[in-house]
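Example for tutorial group B:
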C-alpha cells in the first residue's frame, strides 16, 4: 500500500502493517475526540513514525496514487479533527 504524509512524501508499506496502523489511528482518534493535546501529539507522532519506519520512501518521481493520506507532523488537533472520517484516517 502507498501512504502519503502531507508535505513529506509517499511511503510503500506492506499490507501486514495495517493492524498496527489501525491501532495507532484509533489512539489518534481518541486523543482528538477528548481534545487531549498531549495525547494527540504523541499519537500523531507514533502513527507517522510507524509509516516512516515500517515502509520505504517512494522515489520523488513516483506518481502513483496514495491509498490514504496522513497529516504532517505539525498539523493541529483542529486540522486533524476536520480530516477524520467515522473510522479515523486509516481506512479499514
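The residue assignment follows.
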Amino acid at each position: 500500500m502507498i501512504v502519503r504524509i502531507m508535505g513529506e512524501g509517499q511511503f510503500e508499506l506492506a499490507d501486514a502493517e495495517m493492524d498496527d496502523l489501525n491501532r495507532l489511528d484509533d489512539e489518534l482518534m481518541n486523543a482528538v475526540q477528548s481534545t487531549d493535546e498531549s495525547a494527540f501529539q504523541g499519537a500523531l507522532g507514533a502513527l507517522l513514525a510507524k509509516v516512516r519506519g515500517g515502509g520505504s520512501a517512494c522515489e520523488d518521481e513516483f506518481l502513483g496514487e496514495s491509498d490514504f493520506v496522513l497529516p504532517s507532523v505539525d498539523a493541529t488537533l483542529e486540522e486533524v479533527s476536520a480530516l477524520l472520517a467515522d473510522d479515523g484516517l486509516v481506512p479499514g
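The mean pLDDT is 92. Compare this with the pattern of hydrophobic and polar residues in the output above.
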